[in-house]
């Protein structure tokens, strides 16, 4: 199984990693450390099977002239009955089109019509904690709402990750966007 993720500028990535570390140090969540190579991201698409060389070739072609996208996280959310906590970006026209264009141009690779990442199902988010008890979810929510007010950054690249092994998520290939 594979995912295509949007990756952030260094400042945004480091801020989220710091929050992950603080949640871990407070014994609230070990989310960041459950998977080797985990980086802050927004998942754009998922695939069960993939012709990797064809997919990478298309990434290079499609994202060659794609400018970086401004992103602003100013809300926190949770999926029902998941124990997940995430920062939710403001859905701008640029973010919406970035996601929609990906799915339009990579349609031949879509092998899961029920994916949570396809248009009309996608809830863009950057996970902060996952699989928490109600008590820990409440604790994480309170901590994160007081920890920062808004995160402003950029999506500066896309990366193809392999999530076949639940203990690691290595980047197979990444492509920088135009800064």
Structural class: alpha+beta
User: Rounded to an integer, what's the Rg over CA atoms?
Assistant: 16 Å
Strand content: 25-35%
Could you state the order of secondary-structure elements as H and E? EHEHEEHEHEE
Straight-line N-to-C gap: 30 Å
The named CATH superfamily = Cyclic phosphodiesterase
Oligomeric assembly: single chain
Helix proportion: 25-40%
How many domains in all?
1
CATH fold-level assignment: Cyclic Phosphodiesterase, Chain: A
Mean pLDDT across residues? 96
Query: What is the count of DSSP helices, taking H or I runs of 4+ residues?
Result: 4
> What CATH architecture would you give?
Alpha-Beta Complex
Plain-language structure description:
The chain has about 180 residues and is of the alpha+beta class. The protein has one domain: Cyclic phosphodiesterase (Cyclic Phosphodiesterase, Chain: A, Alpha-Beta Complex), CATH 3.90.1140. The protein is about 30% helix and about 30% strand. It is built from four helices and seven strands; from the N terminus they run βαβαββαβαββ. The chain has helices at about 10-25, 50-60, 95-105, 135-145, and strands at about 1-10, 40-45, 70-75, 85-90, 125-130, 150-160, 170-175. Strands 1, 2, 3, 4, 5, 6 and 7 form a seven-stranded antiparallel β-sheet that branches. The longest helix has 16 residues, at about 10-25. The chain starts with a strand and ends with a strand.
């Amino acid at each position: 199984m594979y995912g295509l993720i949007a990756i952030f500028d260094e400042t945004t990535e480091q801020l989220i990693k710091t929050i992950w570390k603080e949640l871990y140090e407070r014994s609230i969540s070990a989310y960041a450390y459950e998977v080797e190579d985990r980086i802050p991201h927004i998942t754009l698409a998922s695939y069960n099977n993939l012709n990797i060389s064809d997919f990478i070739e298309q990434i290079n072609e499609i994202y060659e002239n794609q400018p970086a996208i401004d992103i602003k996280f100013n809300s926190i959310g949770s999926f029902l009955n998941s124990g997940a906590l995430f920062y939710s970006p403001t859905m701008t026209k640029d973010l919406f089109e970035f996601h929609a264009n990906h799915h339009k141009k990579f349609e031949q690779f879509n092998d899961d019509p029920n994916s949570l990442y396809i248009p009309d199902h996608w809830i863009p988010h950057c996970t902060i904690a996952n699989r928490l008890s109600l008590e820990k979810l409440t604790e994480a929510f309170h901590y994160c709402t007081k920890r920062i007010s808004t995160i402003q950054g950029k999506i500066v690249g896309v990366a193809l990750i392999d999530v076949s092994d639940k203990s690691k998520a290595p980047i197979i290939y990444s492509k920088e966007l135009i800064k």
